[in-house]
Amino acid sequence: MTPAATEPDDDNSVKMMDYFMQLEYREPLCPVVRRYADQLLEGRLIGHQCPSCGLVYLPPRGYCPICVVETTDADETVLSDRGTVTNYTVVTPVQYYGQHETEPFVRASVTLDGGNATMNLQDLVDVPVDEVRVGMRVAAVWKPKGERSVADISNRSWGSAEGCIDGWRPTGEPDAPAEQFLGKATF
Amino acid sequence: MDDIAIIGYAQSPSQRRAELTEPQFLFPVISEAIERANVERRDIGFTCAGSCDYLSGQTFAFVMNLEAVGAWPPISESHVEMDGAWALYEAWVRLQHGDIDVALAFGSGKSSPGDPSEIYPLQLDPYTLTPLGADPVSMAALQARAMLDKGTITEQEMAEIAVRSRTNAANNPYAQVRGSGDVDTLLREPYVTAPLRRHDLPPISDGASAVVLATADKARAVCERPVWIRGIDHRIEPHQPGMRDLTESISTRQAGRHAGIDHGPVEVAELSATFSHQEKLLREALGLGDEVQVNPSGGALAANPVMAVGLARIAEAARAISERGVSRALAHATSGQCLQQNLVCVLEGA
Ligand SMILES: [Zn+2]
User: Fold this and answer.
1) What is the pLDDT of residue B179?
2) Peptide bond into B195 cis (omega under 30)
3) What distance in Å separates residue A7's CA from the closest CA in chain B?
């Protein structure tokens, strides 16, 4: 915290005062997210499957908020690293401070095979922006084992895997029917 | 005003650094409060939460906390950026409408990820106090110094309050600071910020509390020994501490009077005295004599989960009535620096 007064005017009164502040928060990963991060480093996506309704939460939260039941290691399930684009947004970057992107890019929701688990805000690789579509089949592009990092994963960033997965690449399989996904909420 | 009763309550253990996230440690607390109230989740007509995004370091952190209540079906809910005691106040007002009969209030806070001495100055005057880094311990030290100078407390009395709080906390499974050396031992410790020593300060805590309220008919139907809210009131003093006499608490006195403290004898008082000297100040503002048992739980000096600690006082006062046969108790919650805002709640067993 560094308050700094600007030069006083002729009448010696302070007209403006800069005040810079920053707050730092450090929160260790809670056990279920720690486990998720450790498994990511091994190249596995894990979730918790609610024993009551069957919905899968990725990363695990330790509970199902729909059924209000706690979930434990016993509810852990290994998820596929292949899936389907179920939604996407084309982002056209504006060059504000800190923006490193210069060309339009896509952030997609990928619903993993075998259930409801969906990873949001995912990068798609090796596909032009105007070819992205709902129903497109994709597979995770894992970073090489030694280059994976979970440093950016926090208790709050549900679904983040970008330190371990570079993005999702189209598999070339025929599309899944888009109407299966459109207009539906994902978890 | 219609009588509203407390029919269920629960707390988490207070911890210096919770391993779980805030929604995760809230989860069993809310479930336990509802279970003890002997109602179903779907019976709850209104939910109000108290928490602080600045503590969590995340905007809309309170939305995540709602997962502990249940995300489906949709509920009627509200949030106060205040201690859960104020969430209870809003739930109490909501029940006065008469169209619903059960309400849930909860409070939660995880202080461990941040640095309280950096966070709290930001709630003060941004021109004169925040740039000074006027943190809660420094502000409380100024208040204690003012009381010492005025002769309304001694350092010996402050240590006695700390010893009694820590001794009482020995039997409280939710407390964080338990057991104590004697007064002489504590007084030999160095100052943290003069005239405050370690024992005059609250611990830094993570924790949660929850209370279930019901209208009179519903309370009698589901609860063997409802705890009745006979009065509840809160008052606010100026934001700028320099405009107040820090050696007394006018807002506490007013809230106490409007909550009807003097309509009968008080047996137990659970006070949010976050610093030792504030207990004496609050006792005087509320007119509590030596016959009143103050903070049998250990109070805020033994566990201080910010945003949950005031509601925990209400839960502890209710517990004294429903589990220990006390017939009349009061609970106090506070917010802001040096007791700027105060809430008083009077509870009775019958
Ligand atoms: Zn479920």
Assistant:
1) 87
2) yes
3) 17
pLDDT at A1: 44
Q: Same fold for the domain at B4-114+204-227 and the one at B116-202+230-348?
A: yes
Pairwise CB contact (< 8 Å): B20 & A62? yes
Say what the ipTM of the complex is.
0.90
pTM of the model: 0.93
CA closest to B122 among chain A residues: A21
Cβ neighbours, 10 Å, residue B172:
20
Classified by CATH at the fold level, domain B116-202+230-348 comes out as: Peroxisomal Thiolase; Chain A, domain 1 (3.40.47)
Nearest C-alpha neighbor of B297 from the set B9, B3, B103, B24: B9
Q: Between residues A184 and B255, which one has the greater pLDDT?
A: B255
Indicate the residue of A23, A70, A155 with minimum beta-carbon distance to B21.
A155
Strand, coil or helix: B146: helix
For residues B163 and A165, what is the distance between their CA atoms, to the nearest angstrom?
A: 55
Quick one: CATH architecture of B4-114+204-227?
A: 3-Layer(aba) Sandwich (3.40)
Distance from CA of B30 to the nearest CA of A (A): 10
Which residues of B are less than 8 Å from A27 in CB distance?
A: 57, 110, 112-113
Contact across the interface for A30 and B133, Cβ inside 8 Å: no
- Bridge-based pairing of strands A17-20 and A2-5 is antiparallel
pLDDT digits (tens, 9 = 90+) for A37-87: 999 999 999 999 999 999 999 999 999 999 999 999 999 999 999 999 999
Nearest residue of B to residue A32, measured between CA atoms? B20
Specify the residue for token string 């994709």.
A138
